[in-house]
Amino acid sequence: MRAAQLLWLWALLRTTRVAGALVNRTIDDQFGDTSTGFVPSYSPLDKWARGDLCTGCNIHPGTVNVSQTHDQTWHDSTYHPGNPDHTITFGFNGTAVYVYHLLADGTFNGTTTFTNLTFFIDGQYVGQFVRTPDNASDIILYNVLVFNQTNLSHQPHSFKTVTNGPTDALILFDYAMYTTEDDPATSSASSDRTSSTSATSTISAVHTAASRVASTTPVGAIVGGAVGGVAVLAAVGVLLLCIRRKRAMRPPSIAERVEPFTMHGGERALENTPSRRLSHPPRLPDLRLGRGRLMPGAGSSTTGSSSAGSSRHLFTPHRPRLPPLPPQSVSGRTDRSRANAELVQRIQTLEAQMRALETQQQPGSSGSSRGTSSNPSSNSSGSRGRSRNRSAPRSGLRTELATLRNEIAELRGELEHDQQLLAEVDVLPPSYNT
């Protein structure tokens, strides 16, 4: 599957024609457009001079670093009030245009260095650049962007710079730049011409060496076979890498078995579980009714004293549900298994407590008969004591039994839920870390 996709992509790249890309083209003040050869026009023509050749100008190659100008040229003109507008005009086909001038600070032997430029695109006013120079020293500034306009429609445009007004102004135009789309047809035509020339040479070679051509393996077949072989090998390598990574990230199987808990003589023990072992088996208490508590009363009667109050244990009817197991987590699975073992232990303990309460609830149990007297003379008072001792505890025992049954049912539901999560984790695919 991957190899087929790679081959399809390679074929698509070979057959897709590249669309025109945006490129910048330059219009030099002297040599014009590098693509079309169009040269800017200057008006009035007798008011303009080529700065790099003007020896009578106050700003000349002796005062200008020619190497910092574009193509080592610039056009120079000085406007005086009453003159016709001094203009620079050129055309371009693009979506953006940028105009660069030289600027002068100082006086340069009395020459004005004030700049006043107004710009028009397709006859519409688009901006103005006005600058008052610093006359402290004679300095030339190079590659100064005096105007730019973007987001134009991609079509032929005319650009015009105008200098006029009541003040003398200096113009030092260096170059302009515009953004356009490179025509793919030009590259295609050039490629076709190259291919045609190559084909002509090949045909000539075939006619002069037919026997050698007949025995020569086609270059296209060799290149195609090599590319296809590389693509197949790359696909196989990627597939093997994915399989290896999947196996490496798969957690080892952990066989954990919860051994049953055995109850002997009121004691419980946890055997062969992966969780912590108890230092000594906990003792199952002799239960009797308390206010929301189970209180051990070993060695005391049902009407016994409060001597066992110091060893009371709070009865918690609700146990919070454990958080879900994260997928493919070995440590999380081990903790969940330990938690399940604790749930089993808790359920068995509660069942033992419930059986003890059921035994106390049965008529004629030892707890209910302890209040009787062997002295016949105390039968009347003993009957009244047994009546009170049987009625009050039995209602409490029923409540306690109902609470224990509810908790056992809730714990069993939680145990089944956790076991289902563990079963789902065994079949989940491995997760990949990016």
UniProtKB/TrEMBL annotation:
Keywords: Membrane, Signal, Transmembrane, Transmembrane helix. Residues 1-21 form the signal peptide. Residues 292-311, 363-384 have a biased composition (Low complexity). The chain crosses the membrane at residues 219-243. Residues 265-338, 357-401, 414-434 are annotated as: Disordered. The keyword Transmembrane helix applies. The keyword Transmembrane applies. This is Uncharacterized protein. It comes from Polyporus arcularius HHB13444. The lineage of its organism: Eukaryota, Fungi, Dikarya, Basidiomycota, Agaricomycotina.
